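re the bet — no i am not wrong, look at it urself. input seq straight from the record:
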Amino acid sequence: MFQTYIKSRSFRRAAARLPQSELAEFIQYFLDHGYAHKTIHRYLCAVIHFADWMTKRGISCSDATARDKREFVRHRMSDPSSSGLFMHNKNTYAVSLSHWLRYLANDVKILSTNN
């Protein structure tokens, strides 16, 4: 399912830093709620960029917090190589990462109630 949304090899390599089961559930959530293919693609790209950035900082994307999200958005805005593209997609990044953090919080709650 993931390959339907991400064609780039470099993005696939970066996505390998994320648990594939989490990505599959994340995609399924958007499919179940009728999100467009293009929106799902953009949201996945944002989460993959975020995961790559977090990994470079030595933090698992699965341990991300709202503070990490804010720092990432600030970082992307200040990066001259991505600012033009990022400014166009700032809201997409913020929304997709909010979805991701909510997904992680719900996933943790589900796991903790099963123990």
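see?? Helices lie at 2-5, 9-15, 20-32, 37-56, 66-78, 83-114. told u. also Residues 83-114 form the longest helix (32 residues). so pay up
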